[in-house]
Amino acid sequence: MKQIFFIFLILSGYNSLAGSDPSLQITNAWIQEGPPNARVLAGFMDINNHTTQGIIIESATSDSFKRIEFHQTINENGMARMRKQDKLMIKSGASLKLKHGGYHLMLIQPKKHLKEGDKIDILFKLSTSTTQLISLTVKKPTDSQQGHQHHH
Amino acid sequence: MSQNHKENSNQHKFIYGTVAIIAVLAGLFVMQLNKEQPAAPLELINATLLKPAKIVKPSGLIDHNNQAFGLKQMQGHWSFVFFGYTNCPDVCPATLFQFKNIAKMLDAHPHIKANTRFILVSIDPERDDAKHLKEYVQYYHPDFIGITGNNKDIYSFSRQMGVIYQRQAPEKKSEPDNYLVDHSSAILMLNPLGQLQVVYSAPHEAETILKDYIAIYQATSGQDS
């Protein structure tokens, strides 16, 4: 039972808390599974900054992708527009949800076909001169993750 | 003075317009009464029904098996149509998963399912050839259809369907093939005559789309699920 709980902690991404300090609290970090020939994927997570200072995520890198960019989907006037963000800023005490139809990680050129259940590490470079390793789980979306309307 | 005159004129227009609408509605009511089974008024949650349906004339398009895709292929069934591209990280995969969910929920309505198609039209034909599209759409569902063509024919079809898209400049000059495309987020629907009949505006929810679709299907075909 203890082992199961331990595994749950790892899966939940709480292990990142044990890393360098100050750091962000990351939960629900996941990558949406895509077709085998998808050239881009999207990564999502909930980011909380419980520290006393604002933290900027300056870049993200991973061995599993050629490049990672921060993007924001903007739905306006019936158009879906994608805008690149150079950095993500999370103020002290604030949170940022990376989710469908909003901010997300754009994962460019996966090195292999990622399948449901795979674990992928992504390294955030933070403005606090530290790095933070995030573990993301590859998943197929559930209806609630697709239901944009519930959040509006 | 002229302001008053204008207002009077507008009031007249309004009254005449109202009378005309009432006359048309009365006519329709009579027509409905003459039918054996008068149809109940169609109540839709989110979808917009186009009346009359818009005639579209696709030309030069191919499906993911390199077969011609024209009016003939669009007829005989209802088709959900989304304009997107396979290098799209967020919106297009989300919409295709919703198509997948709708298809799954249609298992409970086999008659409707047999008359329903799901189509992704690539607005990025330079990167989305038939072979690439096939593997991409069939990951979501083996029955989904990918459509591509040349830029001119895709553009023409998109305009007829009321869709706009715009390619962004590449992020890096050294990677000219790495670019994003802004595009309309609506899901369109063709009726069995191959005409644009329904617009499902974003944000989308599979269950809502399905409810509206079943209502439209049953109202227009007079068939049960």
Low-pLDDT ranges of chain B: 26-38
Strand order of the largest sheet of chain B: 1-9-8-3-4-5-2
Q: Mean pLDDT score of chain A, rounded?
A: 85
Q: Percent of residues of chain B in helical segments?
A: 40-55%
Please tell me what the overall shape of chain B is.
globular
- What does the overall shape of chain A look like? globular
Question: What does the average pLDDT of chain B come to?
Answer: 87
Percent of residues in β-strands of chain A:
over 45%
Count helical runs of chain B: 7
- Secondary structure tally, helices of chain A: 2
- Strands of chain B, total number: 9
How does the SSE layout of this entry go?
The complex is a heterodimer of chains A (152) and B (225).
Chain A: H1 2-11, E1 25-32, E2 40-48, E3 55-61, E4 65-76, E5 79-85, E6 88-90, E7 95-98, E8 103-110, E9 119-126, E10 131-139, H2 143-146
Parallel strand pairs in A: 1-10
Antiparallel strand pairs in A: 1-2, 2-7, 2-8, 3-6, 3-9, 4-5, 4-8, 9-10
Chain B: H1 2-34, E1 48-55, E2 62-63, H2 71-74, E3 78-84, H3 91-105, H4 110-114, E4 116-122, H5 130-140, E5 145-148, H6 151-160, E6 165-167, E7 181-184, E8 187-190, E9 195-200, H7 206-221
Parallel strand pairs in B: 3-4, 4-5
Antiparallel strand pairs in B: 1-9, 2-5, 3-8, 6-7, 8-9
Q: Which labels suit this protein?
A:
heterodimer; A: 152 residues; mainly beta; ten-stranded mixed beta sheet; 2 helices; globular; B: alpha+beta; two-stranded antiparallel ribbon; 7 helices; 9 strands
Detailed description of the structure:
The complex is a heterodimer of chains A (152) and B (225). In chain A, 9% of the residues lie in helices and 49% in strands. Chain A is mostly beta strands and 152 residues long. In chain A, strands 1, 2, 3, 4, 5, 6, 7, 8, 9 and 10 form a ten-stranded mixed β-sheet that branches. Chain A is globular, with a radius of gyration of 15 Å. With 225 residues, chain B is an alpha+beta fold. Helices cover 42% and strands 20% of the residues of chain B. In chain B, the strands form two sheets. Chain B has a seven-stranded mixed β-sheet, with helices on both faces. In chain B, α3 (91-105) packs across α7 (206-221). The termini of chain B are far apart. The model of chain B is unreliable at 26-38 (pLDDT under 50). The A-B interface holds A 32, 34-42, 69, 71, 73, 75, 78-82, 84, 100-101, 104, 106-108, 140-141, 143, 146-149, 152 and B 86-91, 93-94, 97-98, 101, 127, 132, 135-137, 139-140, 164, 168, 171, 178, 180, 182-186, 201-208. β5 (79-85) of chain A pairs antiparallel with β7 of chain B.
